[in-house]
Specification:
Layout: E1 4-5, H1 10-15, H2 28-34, E2 38-44, H3 54-63, H4 66-69, E3 88-94, H5 104-111, E4 114-118, H6 141-152, E5 156-158, H7 164-173, E6 179-183, H8 197-206, E7 209-212, H9 216-219, H10 227-239, E8 246-248, H11 268-277, H12 282-300
Parallel strand pairs: 1-2, 2-3, 3-4, 4-5, 6-7, 7-8
Helix pairs in contact: 7-8, 10-11
The chain binds zinc ion (ZN).
Length: about 300
Amino acid sequence: MFIADTHSDTLYALGVHRTLESDLMITPDKLRKGGISLQTFALWTGVDGNRGDVSGIVHKELEARSIFEDKGIPQVQDPRDADENGNAFMLSVEGGEVFEKGLDTVDEFRALGVRMVALTWNHANAIGFPAKSGDKRGLTEYGLKVVRKMQDNGMAADVSHLNEAGFWDLINKTNQPPMASHSCCMSLCRHFRNLTDEQIRALVSGGGYIGINFYPSFLSESGKCDVRRVAEHIDHVCQLGGEHIVGFGSDFDGIETTPEGLEGADTVPALLECLKEFGMSDDIIAGIAGKNLLAYYDRIDPR
Ligand SMILES: [Zn+2]
């Protein structure tokens, strides 16, 4: 089965935070054990907006890729290049600060193999405003230019962390449907990081994508849950008509707690088992596991 995960902070944990490999939720061994065909590694750049050392952090994160490459897990430049029977990773960016110095920077990150970009992390930047701020402004004029250039280059605009006004600007003013790489359902857990049913319906009708986050605080208002709760959020997206646009966005190595039974990449098969218990067909589960993500890239970047 082709299994994909659209968000993790493993490269930040390794390269910047210097987390020991034995303490990671995603390691080469865990990717193999979990049968993860395509793991997305974020280049996290959200630190303190453009006042932070963005390029220094990105450099350290890029260097940290070697832990996977040295163990035979290669980077792919396109999600559709990942092999169902192998393990590979793809790069994303979390925090549009990397694009603040001009539109040419979009080309630079595309050349590195970046295929999705969360336009903001939790700080406002030259592109837009985060959900965390409560700001009601949409994307900036410059932000719209950046997104259009990204979309012309097969890069997905990722709304996780972005505010709602920015989300609707992506829906209404740009050429390709956006994705949420690591978000959950607001109607099951009231948290500013989650998407409303109205937003999820817009992703369904527009052909977007949502990877359900595994962070207990986004899954359950008690901040505690087990693997079944992740399946409930996936099922909720299905109830809204989204069985072909939903998948996994673990946020592994960026979260301090996990659902019981879903502690790392090696445990993802337990989530697939849970989906079966929800009565989903093998075809629907294969879509949720990863094929839905490949279909999303076929929509935004036909080849
Ligand atoms: Zn995040």
